[in-house]
């Protein structure tokens, strides 16, 4: 198998996990280059990496570059993404700069790999809250056309990066010591609290924050359903890792909970854990570190004719970020799109 010169841009939670995932999956890399803002040595997963400052020139000779900044971080892909493409690099971007760009396919490999054929050098990986929902919606939509989706998310602090994890740890300690909490990453203390605000308010969707708009727009793009009725409320919760989602789906035709379980049990990348009478359903603690998206609490919604409720949990740093990007590259190699 041909091997590729690989670069990872950004060495935060996602970049570090990206390197671990690539090594774990025996990605056909002949070399790794790590680009960030300053020069240093990083030890990750038992390997030592020399980190060099990012520049346009640094992409010379790089076959595949993974842009791995924290969700919402701006700058790297805007500065270097298309410039890297001009040097012959295929760019897989975890950031949100180009997700809705018509030149850029937005990919979950289990859902819409056919969109890769139209790529122009930059491929976007969806938001960490979008990936779990489309993993579930896509196979169900094929069976019974979806009429409307209502989703509420419960998103862990790791989605905001290392500083947010440290902030939650510190606030837990402050609470135990009966000391004041001083929020910096979030507008309110996150420990023992819920914050229904992720990103900034978006004028094109009055009253909606950016994370909610991403879920709506990205889901429509991935599923090729530009007019799908979908609404979202995204909430930051005091959980260290893994995002959870309560999803209500209204279908055009009847579909039973038993059919939903059967379809999802046969879906690549999805695991069904649904025995509520035995207290078995996905939780962030159990799903953290897992590659699959887990689904449980599958039940009929009695308030509408063809409604289904379900509960979805996925590791936002793995499948929600690093793993999905690695799978995009693997799929492109498989399809002969990276030579």
Notes on the structure:
- The protein has about 350 residues and is an alpha/beta fold.
- It has two domains: about 5-125 and about 320-335, NAD(P)-binding Rossmann-like Domain (Rossmann fold), CATH 3.40.50.720; about 130-155 and about 195-315, Dihydrodipicolinate Reductase, domain 2.
- It has eight helices and 13 strands.
- It has helices at about 15-25, 75-85, 130-145, 160-175, 210-220, 255-265, 285, 320-335; strands at about 5-10, 30-35, 40-45, 45-55, 65, 90-95, 120-125, 145-155, 230-235, 245-250, 270, 295-300, 305-315.
- Strands 3-4-2-1-5-6-7 form a seven-stranded mixed beta sheet, sandwiched between helices. Strands 9-8-10-13-12-11 form a six-stranded mixed beta sheet.
- α1 (about 15-25) links the parallel β1 and β2 (about 30-35).
- α1 (about 15-25) packs across α8 (about 320-335) and α3 packs parallel to α5 (about 210-220).
């Amino acid at each position: 198998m041909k091997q590729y010169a690989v670069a990872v841009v950004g060495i935060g939670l996602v970049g570090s996990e990206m390197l671990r995932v690539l090594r774990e999956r025996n990605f056909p890399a002949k070399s790794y280059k790590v680009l960030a803002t300053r020069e240093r040595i990083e030890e990750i997963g038992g390997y030592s990496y020399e980190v060099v400052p990012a520049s346009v020139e640094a992409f010379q000779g790089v076959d595949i570059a993974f842009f791995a900044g924290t969700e919402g971080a701006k700058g790297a892909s805007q500065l270097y993404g298309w410039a890297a493409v001009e040097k012959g690099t295929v760019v897989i971007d975890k950031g949100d700069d180009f997700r809705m760009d018509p030149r850029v396919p937005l990919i979950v490999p289990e859902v819409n790999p056919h969109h890769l054929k139209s790529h122009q050098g930059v491929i976007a990986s969806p938001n960490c809250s979008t990936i779990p929902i489309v993993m579930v919606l896509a196979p169900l939509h094929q069976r019974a056309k979806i009429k409307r989706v209502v989703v509420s998310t419960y998103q862990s602090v790791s989605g905001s990066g290392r500083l947010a994890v440290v902030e939650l740890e510190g606030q837990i300690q402050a609470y135990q010591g009966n000391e004041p909490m001083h929020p910096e990453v979030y507008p309110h203390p996150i420990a023992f609290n819920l914050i229904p605000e992720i990103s900034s308010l978006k004028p094109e969707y009055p009253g909606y924050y950016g994370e909610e708009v991403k879920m709506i727009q990205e889901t429509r793009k991935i599923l090729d359903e530009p007019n799908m009725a979908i609404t979202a409320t995204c909430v930051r919760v005091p959980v260290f890792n893994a995002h959870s989602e309560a999803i209500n789906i209204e279908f055009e035709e009847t579909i039973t909970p038993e059919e939903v379980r059967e379809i999802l049990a046969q879906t690549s990348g999805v695991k069904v854990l649904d025995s509520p009478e035995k207290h078995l359903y996905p939780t962030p603690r159990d799903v953290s570190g897992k590659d699959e998206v887990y689904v449980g609490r599958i039940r009929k919604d009695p308030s509408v004719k063809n409604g289904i409720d379900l509960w979805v949990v996925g590791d936002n740093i793995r499948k929600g970020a690093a793993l999905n990007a690695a799978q995009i590259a693997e799929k492109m190699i498989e399809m002969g799109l990276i030579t």
